[in-house]
Amino acid sequence: MENYRSLRDLVLPLSRLTVVTGPNGSGKSSLYRALRLLADAARDGAVAALAREGGLPSALWAGPEATGRAVREGRSAVQGTRRTKAVGLRLGFSGDEFGYALDLGMPIPTRTAFNRDPEFKRECVWRGPVLRPATLLADRAGPVVRTRAAGGSWGQDPHPIGIADSMLTAFADPRISPEVLVVRERIRSWRFYDHFRTDADAPARQARVGTRTPVLDHDGADLAAALQTIEEVGDADELRAAVDNAFPGSRVRVEVAEDGRFGLSFHQHGLLRPLSAGELSDGTLRYLLWVAALLSPRPPELLVLNEPETSLHPDLLPALAALIATAAARAQVVVVTHAQPLVRALAAVEDGTALLELGKEFGATVLAGQSLLERPSWHWPKR
């Protein structure tokens, strides 16, 4: 990530289960939003997502292009300087099979009312973990895209593309570039959950007509249907264990009314009758939402959770950590949190948990303890 809010220049190694932590203001929320923005590109939604943030100028790194030695040594205050490089917001990722990077910049002013809309300056899809000319599979420069043919040679004629369109949507065609299609579908499978509503009018508290729901919606409105789907086509034993682990002796049932509406019935040890979703405490309802999200019968390529500990009692964090570890056995998981009890609980239940602690240096987010030699190899495509 480069030039997105406080993420001046950040390259992070991700494991099967990665926990990102750090003090308030260290850039955790910016990291979560950067991942969502990268996922939006696969749906041609990056420009609209930036517009909701106030446009590209509002999302760009607000500090100087470079921090001088005198500033670093405390002999001078930070001074604004004229930029000598093209301004761009860059996001990307790579793995063993494929890599992808995009570079969004400001347009050349023209007679249009949309001069604040960012343009795709560069996009690249490559094979393997490191971008090199020999590994490029699809290369976009401004309004044209080149793709490799089946034999490995570049196609004769470049393909035109709109300056606000991502090649992940325009060229995800197996006849043009099957690799771009694979990368797009993998990114589109990424799943994000952030602050489920649990207030009195929360969608999760309402009975709704249910359909098979292998993936819980981001607002939790289909909670009852998602839990019933896990019961029927997912791992019902894990569902029961997750509830009992948090609330010993308790169980959840889904009641289906004659009109097809699904409602929750929470049977708790010591009570004479079950509780409906509308009667559950905020913490209990939120935990059940995490159960439905993390035990999905259709796991994603990447699952990103933003502060899942919100409104949960500390006693529930070990149970939540066990749920997250179960999800990490099926999908790559990134957890963004500032709750140290959850960090400790995750480290206790999952040996392979990677802990990334963010901090700030001269306003820029940095990974604590990461030296230049420890930084993963990464190269941006040049304009």
Automatic annotation (TrEMBL):
InterPro entries: ATPase_AAA_core, P-loop_NTPase, RecF-like. It comes from the Bacteria. Keywords: DNA damage, SOS response. Residues 17-339 form the ATPase AAA-type core domain. This is AAA family ATPase. The lineage of its organism: Bacteria, Bacillati, Actinomycetota, Actinomycetes, Pseudonocardiales.
